[in-house]
Amino acid sequence: MPKFVAFLRAINVGNHTVKMDQLGSLFEALGFTNVETFIASGNVIFDSKATNVKSLERKIEKHLEKSLGYAVTTFIRSVAEIAEIACYEPFAREELNGDGNTLFVCFVADAPTRDVAKKLLGLASPVDGFGLNEREVYWLYRRKNGESKFYGPPLERVLGCKTTVRNVNTIRRIAAKYGEVKRPPKSRKA
Length: 190
Hints:
Number of domains: 2
Oligomer: single chain
């Protein structure tokens, strides 16, 4: 049975506090098996007989909104996709390892259009770097160079869609836990 990871937007931020055992139970109520939560930021790993990701996302969103009383945008990736995301390097290794630099992965429902990608990449600065690969936006925040202007709503305005953001270390820990990282990292695209 396929294993998936759901990255949920609006879980344990602001006034939207959800205990992880409650979140797990909500997923089990949908008929998913082997449900686990991973840290308290809205990451749920589960097995499902269904394989249509868009359908799964809608089903989860509808159930969570009914159960929690607010919209929870859901982004699902397979465990194999998580391994690819964890290995992808959109920037030179020296930059990724630079003092104060943090790489974030922003999940979106669909790959950004060419125009959106061009606009986003054009906003790169000494503080913020951006890379794209499939349905993920990679954001390198160079904290030593200043304060970013792209937390939350500003990034979503540029992308023209909802997103949820995770530190790449979280993604790598999920990939390692499920034994899917077995190859060398991809290099950045030219």
